[in-house]
């Protein structure tokens, strides 16, 4: 039996809360996410879950509580250590653009300001999308986003967000892929990415058939928050 200490969790959240103009959004939330692999937050869909995902990726500042992501506690440092994809409020793309357009834009965004970046070609498609799509067929460069399947559309958004391969990858939620078969393929791809990153996503009903960790999270739905207020009044 090994006496080596357990590795420090990738994410430690204590008492996180968020409020908006109309009242509580989520919290208090206590959470630990182990480093590496895929962790699925099992909780109701809605604005609370979305805001929590954005907070854990350093895109929102909580009202109260503490958050550490790979030892980083400042929002800007957490932001730099995390990629976020599949959040409609942040990375929705116009349907009338092509895969080539999106990859070209991302390559230009990632490049030094003085570098001239040509339009994306097949090699760029493979470099950006290959690690995320794995053995699945890559979308054609000429394909319009509106013509992509739900699975391909989300995998493309993940690929664009993940070009720099930060330690943490947060994917909004699994239910945006409505086909059971395609959702199973999506989880399989996230498991593969979890070999080199810590992957965090969310689901209403959880995941079966894959080696993922599942963490129930409370206090992210309107009903839960309303119950708190009623109980405290």
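-> sequence recovered:
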């Amino acid at each position: 039996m090994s006496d080596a200490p357990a590795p420090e969790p990738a994410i430690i959240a204590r008492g996180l809360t968020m409020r908006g103009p109309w009242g509580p959004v989520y919290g208090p939330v206590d959470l630990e996410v182990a480093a590496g692999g895929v962790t699925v937050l099992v909780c109701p869909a809605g604005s609370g879950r979305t805001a929590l995902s954005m907070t854990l990726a350093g895109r929102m500042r909580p009202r109260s509580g503490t958050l550490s992501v790979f030892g980083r506690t400042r929002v800007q440092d957490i932001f730099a250590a995390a990629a976020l994809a599949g959040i409609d409020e942040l990375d929705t793309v116009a349907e009338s653009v092509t895969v080539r357009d999106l990859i070209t834009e991302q390559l230009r965004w990632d490049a030094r300001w003085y570098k001239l970046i040509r339009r994306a070609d097949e090699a760029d498609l493979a470099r950006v999308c290959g690690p995320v799509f794995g053995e699945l067929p890559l979308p054609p460069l000429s394909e319009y986003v509106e013509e992509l399947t739900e699975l391909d559309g989300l995998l493309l958004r993940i690929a664009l967000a993940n070009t720099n391969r930060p330690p943490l990858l947060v994917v909004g939620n699994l239910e945006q892929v409505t086909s059971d078969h395609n959702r199973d393929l999506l989880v399989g791809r996230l498991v593969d990415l979890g070999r080199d990153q810590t992957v965090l996503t969310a689901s209403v009903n959880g995941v079966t058939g894959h080696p993922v960790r599942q963490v129930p999270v409370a206090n992210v739905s309107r009903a839960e928050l309303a119950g708190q207020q009623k109980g405290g009044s």
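The first strand starts at residue 11 and ends at 20.
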